Each structure stands twice: as C-alpha cells, then as structure tokens.
Amino acid sequence: MNTIGLSGQATAPLHAADEPDVRRKIEAGLIGGLVGGFVIWIYEAIVWVGVQHLMPMVGIPRNATGLVFGKAAQDNLGALAYVVGTGIHFFFCFAWGIAFAFAWPYFRRRGYEATLVAMGFAIVLWIVMHAAIALVSNDHPNYLDPMVVIGGFMSHFFYAVPLALIVKRRLAQG
After folding, report:
1. 3, β-bridge pairs
2. R_g over Cα of the chain
3. What is d(CA 110, CA 121) in angstroms, rounded to the nearest whole number?
4. Which residue from 81, 132, 145, 166 could staple onto 65, CB 3.0 to 4.6 Å apart?
5. Among 16, 141, 36, 150, which residue's Cα sits nearest to residue 94?
6. 3-state secondary structure at position 4
7. According to DSSP H, which parts of 18-79 are helical?
8. For 120-171, how does the pLDDT look when each residue is reduced to its tens digit (9 = 90+)?
9. What is the pTM of this model?
C-alpha cells in the first residue's frame, strides 16, 4: 500500500526487512557526524572568526574545552586544550550523528525530507548541548542574548544538514 508523504510523493511503507541494520546506522552516523563536525568548524571560521571577530582561528578547536571545563581550565591546559577540545567536539559530533542515524528511518517512513528533520534536530541539539553546558560550567556565553541564540542555531544548522544528507544517502543504499 502506497501513501503520500509530506514531500507529496508516493511512499511505500518501510517494513522490518527494509530497516537498515545497526552497523549501517552507526557507520552512517559516524561519517555524517564527522562531516558535520568539520562543516560547523568551517562555519565558525568564516562567521565567528572572519565576520564577527569573536575569537582567533586557533580558538576554534579549544572552544569546547572552555565551554565544558571553564576558561581557567582551558588556559591551564595550554596546548592540551586543543586536543581535549577537539576530542569533546568530535565525541559529540559522533554521538549526535549516531542518534540521528537511528532516528532517521522513523522520519523516512513518514515521508519527511532529511533537511527538514535536520532543522528541528539542530534546534534540539543547541538547546540540549547548551543546557548541559550551563549545568556543568558557570563560564559560558549569555544564552539569553539573541545574538548567541541565533548564532548557535545557525552553527548547529551547518552541522545537522550535512549530517542528515549523508545519513539519508548512506541508509538509502542497499
């Protein structure tokens, strides 16, 4: 039985046999998360560094260290802050990528477009990540500042859209 999905195209119901296996979902999430993690850094380099002058280019990899452990810990770690920050950044890129890859089949079955799902996913990511940062650290941007909120949502769109498109393509392959 075909149904009409939100994209307006006929969609066939996805049966259990059509469901991607766990290994494929994890692989798709890891690859999508990696690409999304680099794309968000490119966005930050162009916008946060180049346009807004919020930080120097070298501040991008260590930014996560300061957000999680505070600026004092970031400064005390010296060069190790780059390694720790990069590790934190990509740990969450991979974890959220895998989460998206496991959620995507649900939305695909209902005919949603990946980029639409990515937009909502990006907003959820920003809210969850920054609520967690606010809980573990007192040293964070003002999350009530509209510029911080808009900039944060935009950066997470630049993560989530490539992630979603890669997951969509990789899980569509037989």
Report:
1. 11
2. 18
3. 16
4. 81
5. 36
6. strand
7. 22-43, 59-69, 71-77
8. 999 999 999 888 888 877 776 777 788 888 888 899 999 999 999 999 999 9
9. 0.85
Burial-class residue 20 by CB neighbours within 10 Å (0-12, 13-18, 19+).
buried
Indicate whether 19 pLDDT > 90: no
Helices 80-109 and 59-69, packing angle to 10 deg: 80
Is the distance from CB of 5 to CB of 110 less than 8 angstroms?
yes
In whole angstroms, what is the distance from residue 88 CA to residue 82 CA? 10
Q: What angle do CA 75, 125, 89 make, to 5 degrees?
A: 35
Look at the block and give the residue holding tokens 């798709």. Answer: 28
DSSP tag of 16:
G
Calculate the alpha carbon distances from 148 to 2, 21, 90, 123, 128 in Å. Answer: 44, 38, 21, 13, 15
Report the distance separating Cα 128 and Cα 37, nearest Å.
17
pLDDT score of 6: 58
Average pLDDT over residues 15-25: 80
- Return the residue matching tokens 């999680």: 68
Cross-strand partners of 11: 3
Q: For the segment 25-62, what is each residue's pLDDT rounded down to a tens digit? A: 999 999 999 999 999 999 999 998 999 888 899 889 99
Cβ 36 vs Cβ 127: under 8 Å = no
| Torsion angles phi and psi, residue 28, rounded to 5 | -60, -40
